């Protein structure tokens, strides 16, 4: 029986839970208000319960009874990787995302009630830059005042085995050891797009609009004819929209504008980590999400493996957009595994 037991708040499709399981941690349950995550979560996180609940309404005593949790349990890990749109540098609807700004404070209620051995928080760097406003500053003070050792920093996930550039704030607090616990960087060459994509990695060449009805989900969004023409002119392996900037193919907003938004309509590089996989990675107009050499955006499964999900991870969703949102919002499992290994090995 595994010693460490974890409850994953805001679990979504299970990226954090899966990574911690790979590190040898027993996941008791995942909690999320979005019921559409349930089938994906349960399909991949074996023996874990899925609790459909809004954290604003969920009570500490209710969770204690549902999961038979104990207070002051040295083996218990509470994880709070809340949706982070409000603190993101990416433009979002701030009114729509305002409620997400309070999720850390809601998560804190459960930490104070259960006093677990370990606490993990993962979020966008913006929550660290705006510590007072986000409630992070007060939360850290509370942890320190209650004898938790607290590691908090912004990490680049490509240094932990994820083939993608992605900066994430990570807090690992513990009251079990007398030292800060932090994930250990991988030694050696970073994983790149070439390491996980391409025919040699099981991704056959396909065209824009390809539908894959199998669980592999090598599904690609369609493209208008003008965008296929744009990609045909874009240099392979890292090319940008500047290839057609002075032609009739250039969108009006890009004409005479060669400096801003260079990544939109751009191709990934084979021998570099991918750019940050966002919830819109299936669309070439939303970033450098074109395949390094094929005239299309990356597929759903390609986005997932760039997030470090295994190729057999099951996504049970109803649309391309819903699947991409689940993948793009996820904690990269390989990064989560590095966090889990650090806890298990007390590093």
What does this structure look like?
Helix content is 29%, strand content 12%. α1 crosses α13 (333-344). Strands 3-2-1-4-5-7-6 form a 7-stranded mixed sheet, sandwiched between helices. It is elongated and about 65 Å long. It is built from 13 helices and 7 strands. It has a domain at 5-189 and 332-344: Vaccinia Virus protein VP39 (Rossmann fold, 3-Layer(aba) Sandwich). It has helices at residues 15-22, 38-44, 60-67, 94-97, 103-114, 126-129, 131-134, 136-145, 193-196, 225-233, 300-306, 320-329, 333-344, and strands at residues 5-9, 26-32, 49-52, 76-80, 118-123, 149-156, 167-174. β2, α2 (38-44) and β3 form a beta-alpha-beta unit. It has 347 residues and is α/β, with parallel strands linked by helices.
Task: Kindly report how far apart the N and C termini lie.
Answer: 21 Å
How much helicity do the residues have?
Answer: 25-40%
CATH topology of the domain at 5-189 and 332-344: Rossmann fold
Tell me what the CATH architecture of the domain at 5-189 and 332-344 is. Answer: 3-Layer(aba) Sandwich
CATH evolutionary superfamily of the domain at 5-189 and 332-344 = Vaccinia Virus protein VP39
Radius of gyration: 21 Å
Q: β content, as a range?
A: 5-15%
Number of helices: 13
CATH class of the domain at 5-189 and 332-344: Alpha Beta
